[in-house]
Amino acid sequence: MKNNLIAAAELDRLETWAKYTADMCHSCMSSCCTLPVEARLNDLIRIGVVDEFERSEPLKNIAKRLQKDGIVERFHQKSGIFTLTRMSNNDCYYLDRKTRLCTIYDKRPDTCRNHPKIGPRPGYCAYKPKA
Ligand code: SF4
Hints:
The protein has helices at residues 41-47, 59-68, 110-114; strands spanning 18-19, 38-39, 72-76, 81-84, 124-125. It is α+β, with helices and mostly antiparallel strands. Bound molecules: iron/sulfur cluster.
């Protein structure tokens, strides 16, 4: 009930984000999974899109392959950070469109595990009730 009183947040207006409590997730349309997700090599290995033996490969080459495969949309060479692909509606590549649940939950990147402890507004999330 409490969450029905919270207005839907606008992703790019941090002041509209709501103070996070764990009970919010089940009634939310997973708006956090429409934010850009940064991932590191260890995340990509855990997800299973990069093999352990590729550790010695230049990250640039790995990024090129993952971009070609449509899994990664950006790579920042200096920081070694990959950004996962988002679909045309901004959904994460790994978000199930129907259930709005993560399809790789047990293997999800650290960025997702740490949300919203770490992120654009720590302790707050872009809560949007399911339609
Ligand atoms: S990897 Fe999973 S938890 Fe992380 S943003 Fe994508 S769908 Fe959400």
